[in-house]
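Bench notes, afternoon.
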Amino acid sequence: MYTIFNTPGPNFSNDHAIAIAKKLYDLKVSVVKPLSSDRDQNFLLYLDDNPIYILKISHPAESFNVLDMQHLAIQHISLLDAKIQLPKEVKNVDGDYISLYKYSEVNYFIRLVEYIPGKLMKDIIHHDKSFINMLGVFLGRISSAFQGFEYENSIRKFPWDISQTDFLYNNICNIDTKKKQIIIEKILKNYEDKIYGIKDDLPLAIIHNDANDHNIIVNQDNVPYGIIDFGDIIKTFRICEPAICIAYLLLDKDDPMQIIAEFLNAYQTIYSITELEISIIIYFICLRLCVSVTMAAYRKKIFPENEYIRVTENQAWRFLRNINHLDLEFCSDQIMNIVLR
């Protein structure tokens, strides 16, 4: 079950990464820098002491179809909105975008992507109203550029798809206190009661599915202009895209309903969603953070040395504890009143 999450990922040395870059891409790399990653292994490659590419070594359990869908989605977005900075893939010496590399009797898929200069959204200390508006517009552009993209195997069983709740039900037991488990159970029940009867009315789309503060790149003026890590790409309810981005935007913030509404108002200047989707987004925001803390609880027992697994765990729990004291229907009404007035 979910072998990509419960089996070890690649563990190549810096020297090995340099050798792979030479063999597959005929690159003379001067320096490599390992980058933090959840389940794959990434190296920033320097040519003549300048960061140029990222070498991505996929988890051995990753499927070719998921990588192919990422590649085609990036190409599609680039054609529709060339100003969005994307991790565009580079062909290997054989003219392929995805390489199969065998080492110690294990097969790995390897890609080389262009490095996007800038800093991560997580490194911006203060997200003021101006930034929230720019972020909403940027994600709206991504959603707009995804329009028309289809892939045969885009619907898949995946715990980070927040429309799929079985992972939560099966892994609540890994959360360390009963009090925390009750919070997850309550949000799950609220979600199921609210969404079950209307899910057929929620539009579907292929989405990035992980527009968090570690994957959005800002330029030197702190304007969001790039997005990386398409590894969670999937076809699901399209409202999950803004819900996920908002979930991480809300961490350690006051007045979350105002922030949600401001983001959605900006988002909708580019990409419109329905009143029904707006009315239920708070449930998806909460559920995303439930998945985040439950996945952290599950995986840190297997990989206690991987700090990236729990990078937002404490912040997410603070949000969930606070929202647990609120009526989500009332929260929804607050958001609707601000967005639609």
